[in-house]
Design goal:
The chain is α/β, with parallel strands linked by helices and about 325 residues long. It contains 8 helices and 17 strands. The chain folds into 2 domains: about 180 residues, HUPs (Rossmann fold, 3-Layer(aba) Sandwich); about 120 residues, Rossmann fold (3-Layer(aba) Sandwich), CATH 3.40.50.1220. Helix 3 packs across helix 4. The longest helix has 17 residues.
Length: about 325
Amino acid sequence: MAGILIVAEQLDGTVQDISAELIGAAVSIKEQIGGPVQVLVIGQVPADLAKAVNLEGVDEILTIETASDHFDPLIYEEVVCQVGFGSKPSVVLIGHTASGMAYGAAIAARLGSGFASDVFGLGMDGDELIATRSAYSNKVEMELGFSGKAVVVLTLRGATFTPPKELGNGVVTAVEVDISMLVGVLSHVEYQDAPPSDIDISKADFILSVGRGIQVKDNLTRFAELADKVGATFGCSRPIVDNGWLPVQHQVGQSGNVASNCQLYFALGISGAVQHLFGMKHIDTIIAVNTDPEAPIFNVATYGTTVDLFELTDALEQLF
């Protein structure tokens, strides 16, 4: 049977945002791939989790009950492989997350499938699936085909694909698999939360970002204060993070964060490298400030100026 199998991701009994994004990606190629869109939900009470992934475009939700909601890569690998060998999907979609990376490649190896990780674009060339990902330290975008492969396993980048907005009416089916051979192989000790951060680029609707044009690290405070005054989230380009001036949570771009919810982007002293444009070129309104009139940022900007960014900042500080 053809179709698309999505592996939903949950954390301690809560479905993660990447799951809906995977469904959105699947729906975008559903007609060309053919067959149903199935979502695989693994957890202690999978029926409750199924409600969160029953979105428009989903045909069936397969639930697998496990002893715990704690993530175990061996269990996910075994469950997906058993389901995959049974349903024989054409495409398997997994989130490119810490969890997804722990078992995605192993599934591809066992299924003998094509494989690509950190995919941010999906398309078709005739009947062949094409996956787009970055290469050479995010300097180029690479399109991959999978000739001769009956199955393709992909891990998809988060905050990239648009989730369905409407609820679905997928059929919920409980599935039994044998994972007895894995009992006691691994034991969960504890889950440690990531260090708290007061910034989420992917959810910000107004971002003020700075690049190398601010010249020195000491100027960061001034621009961070400006962002706060105008009600913007403070972002940056990759060189700022590479220099250790700001943590990666502030970075906009292919190797940082995609500004997926942003409506207004204010770029100060940013040239507009390809990897940065990937994270923000889709935004409706982009205001770029760069003294170089040939800077690539102007190719995607709604409004642009070559005035000195420090003079402009002086004026904005007087207004706010």
